[in-house]
Design brief:
This protein is mostly beta strands and 310 residues long. Helix content is 9%, strand content 26%. It contains four helices and 19 strands. The strands form seven sheets. Strands 3, 4, 9, 10 and 11 form a five-stranded mixed β-sheet that branches. Strands 5-13-14-8 form a four-stranded mixed β-sheet. A two-stranded antiparallel sheet has the order 1-2. Strand 10 and strand 11 form a beta hairpin. It is globular.
């Protein structure tokens, strides 16, 4: 992307986020509709976005022993709202308390992603990757490892629509924002396609890195459509660029995290979740180069080959 403006906008989210998002005012940063979380797009069943969980009957703060929501997969967060290490290590599913729950929405420790962004973030122009997102260098603390940063939000679309959009980006050479989440259980594979290109949030500006500081974790709130939540996989300092691995694979302390677990959610659907790197059937010269600059850089951006198969 070419830099085409030097003006700064006080809030690219237009007041939708609790914390203003600062960034340059130009077509790339305001040429889309801002949303806080996923919305249904072409090709999806609107009923999947309806309330599906009965909720808990807790008063005040939820008790892990008695809370109905926490009986399914246990507590994913600690008392300060950070993702527990075992949640990542064992790829445990995450189900937050929702609208039908009677617990206190502000005090309940099982409500993290739904509260949205709490850190001051900034869109900026990188040297070789177009625009990126970083932690603002202002009066605020660093992001602590396993803390929630933001959601990767956009239109949830059907497979045919996702395929059409992917093929269009390949034909025109335009930027691709589409994320494909694969969820496995037994002999079934469920797909969720999320595209923030025209309708999305600030996460659409986060660049790929082969050695990222964020990890993507599917989190469910109110219904079965997952929110793709980005948590810090290490401490992040002020002015540091935020990145995640577009393949969904994160290397931290030489441990491979692939998000694979079996789930039995309240709506009696049996699913499991995994974000997995796909091999590319195109020649490397046709793939987009990676400019992350990390020591373990693969040289090329991850690629979802299935959406280009006829």
């Amino acid at each position: 992307m070419m830099r085409d403006a030097t003006f700064t906008c006080g809030d690219l989210s237009n007041g939708i986020e609790i914390v203003p998002i600062v960034g340059p005012l130009c077509e790339d940063t305001i040429g889309f509709s801002y949303i806080k979380t996923n919305i249904p797009g072409p090709g999806v069943n609107l009923q999947d976005f309806e309330e599906q969980y009965a909720g808990c009957s807790c008063k005040g703060i939820c008790n892990p022993v008695s809370c109905q929501c926490l009986q399914y997969f246990g507590m994913a967060y600690d008392s300060s709202g950070k993702l527990k290490s075992k949640t990542i290590k064992y790829s445990k599913p995450v189900l937050e308390c929702g609208n039908h729950c009677q617990c206190d929405s502000k005090l309940c420790v099982n409500r993290v992603v739904q509260h949205g962004i709490t850190k001051k973030l900034e869109v900026f122009h990188t040297e070789s990757k177009g625009y990126g997102l970083r932690l603002r260098n202002c009066l605020q603390e660093n992001i602590i490892c396993h803390s929630f940063v933001c959601e990767y939000a956009g239109e949830v679309v059907g497979e045919n629509e996702a395929r059409s959009r992917m093929q269009k980006t390949e034909t025109t050479g335009s930027d691709n924002y589409l994320i494909v989440l694969k969820e496995f259980v037994s002999n079934k594979t469920l797909f969720t396609y999320i595209d923030p290109h025209k309708i999305g949030n600030i996460a659409r500006f986060i660049n790929h890195s082969c050695d990222p500081n964020l990890i993507m974790v599917p989190v469910r709130v109110n219904h079965s459509i997952p929110r793709l939540a980005l948590f810090a996989c290490r401490d992040i300092t002020l002015n540091e660029e935020l990145t995640f691995n577009y393949s969904g694979i994160t290397l931290t302390s030489k441990t491979l995290i692939t998000h694979d677990a079996e789930v039995n959610p309240c709506d009696e659907r049996s699913i499991s979740k995994q974000i997995k790197e796909q091999s590319c059937f195109l020649e490397k010269k046709q793939r987009k180069q990676c400019h992350c600059g990390s020591n373990n850089c693969s040289g090329f951006l991850p690629f979802e080959e299935q959406l280009l198969c006829v």
